[in-house]
Design brief:
alpha/beta
Length: 440
């Protein structure tokens, strides 16, 4: 290039350098196809690990587990303990007796992890981990959440017991994806979580306690972090209140839920070892869905306890609606429904004990139960049993039962606390107004 213009030489060198840099960047950056493939591999590996954990959490003799629950209730609920409410603290069921009347609950929060009953009794949540305090109610960053927010806490890769610094309304911008070994503990504050669903997907040991969850809406998805080490493209979320997917050892307790776009609580995709207790549900159509689709046969491992809840004003149906699995519905108070209370298809086992069912005035909606998409010749074999339930205003429970893994007989069941006590057992359902230094 002897005799060439020095300025042209400079331009040439810069152009070559820029081209080389562009090639290097292109080689280092994954294509969108590669990113999608990486995401698919990540979730496939998580799904396999979750299936293994769920199989381990499955109880081979669910009737024994159910009977153990009933024994605990009978021991904890003497006639004296269910007397008329008179004092500043009265715990009317064994879960609440474990912690509610202790003045030191705020300094011994993790005691709660020892209080679960039913199929989710092993749920440890964030027990053994540090206390993480939510100080910031914002939810603006999906990929790099701000420290102090709820989203930052739930994605951490270690056990955390999450509490709240003050009363707050958390307006979620996208679904909140909770990682394993987390407790969301609203005691001591009035915490409302709104705007998007809480997703518990392919994880274990999660406790959600003492919060108000409502007005969750559908979102189209986007880039969202699900753990400290991973974020990726999420598809749409339905707008459930809480969606439990392919997870185990989950406990939802003392929550107040209403007005969500889809269901209030879904338990689907092979989830098991779940307890839903002491909660208050109002103003909703599709309340609980256990098993999402007929083709999801993995839900045969599903085992759920629904206990001490109040199903209140403005509810329509699905309390719960079940596919496959084994569900113990015990000591709940059903004071409102418009279509039916408990339904399902695909041969689920549903044992109803010690509930109070108050039918609506509509003469066409007196039946507690609804079998869907099956003729009598098929559903007559499904094990749906009622024992010790109280039927009011013309309510009736249509029993069935033949061979479903084994043939259950009433003599197999230890009776639950009778349904006439359901009002007392559920008296304190929903999020409580706990104040530090005092019993709840």
């Amino acid at each position: 290039m002897a005799g060439s213009n020095p300025l042209l030489i400079l331009f040439y060198v810069l152009a070559v350098a820029a081209a080389a840099a562009a090639v290097a960047v292109a080689q280092q950056a994954p294509s969108s196809n590669n990113a999608t493939a990486d995401d698919e591999q990540y979730w496939a590996e998580r799904a396999e690990a979750a299936r293994s954990r769920n199989r381990a959490a499955y109880v081979r003799d669910p009737v024994a587990a159910m009977n153990r629950f009933n024994r605990d209730v009978l021991r904890a609920t003497t006639r004296r303990s269910l007397a008329r409410y008179r004092g500043p603290c009265m715990a009317t069921n064994p879960i609440d007796r474990c912690w509610r009347c202790r003045g030191d609950w705020a300094t011994d929060r993790q005691r709660l992890a020892r209080c679960a009953r039913g199929f989710g009794h092993r749920a440890a949540g964030g027990a053994g981990g540090k206390i993480y305090v939510v100080t910031d109610a914002s939810d603006d960053e999906m990929i790099i959440p701000k420290k102090g927010t709820l989203r930052y806490g739930v994605i951490q890769d270690r056990p955390l017991w999450i509490t709240f610094a003050r009363d707050m309304v958390i307006q979620l911008k996208q679904e909140l994806i909770v990682s394993s070994n987390k407790t969301i503990d609203g005691r001591g504050a009035q915490v409302h979580i709104v705007g998007a669903q809480i997703t518990v997907q392919q994880v274990q040991h999660v406790i959600i306690h003492g919060v108000h969850i409502h007005h969750s809406v559908h979102h189209s998805g986007g880039m969202i972090r699900d753990s400290k080490r991973h974020y990726g493209l999420r598809t749409e979320s339905d707008g459930d209140g809480i969606s439990v997917m392919a997870s185990s050892n989950i406990w939802v307790d003392h929550v107040s839920m209403y007005n969500c776009s889809d269901g209030l609580i879904d338990v689907i995709n092979g989830s098991t070892a779940v307890t839903i207790s002491n909660s208050h549900f109002t103003k909703h159509d599709h309340v609980m869905l256990f098993g999402a689709k007929d083709e999801h046969t993995q839900d045969r491992v599903m085992q759920v306890t629904v206990a001490f809840n109040h199903f209140g004003k403005g509810l329509v149906q699905r309390m719960p609606r079940v596919r496959y699995g084994f569900v113990h519905v015990v000591n709940n108070d059903y004071t409102h429904w418009m279509m039916y209370a408990i339904g399902g298809n695909q041969n689920p086992t549903i044992i109803s004990q010690g509930n109070r069912f108050v039918a609506p005035d509509d003469g066409n909606a007196k039946e507690v139960t609804k079998r869907e998409y099956a003729p009598y010749s098929e559903y007559k074999e499904w094990v749906w049993k009622s024992q010790g339930d109280v039927m009011m205003n013309g309510a009736f429970f249509k029993e069935s039962g033949g061979q479903n893994e084994r043939k259950y007989d009433q003599l197999d069941f230890i009776p639950a606390k009778h349904g006439r006590f359901a009002g007392e057992l559920t008296r304190f359902a929903g999020a409580l107004s706990c104040r530090v230094g005092k019993p709840c």
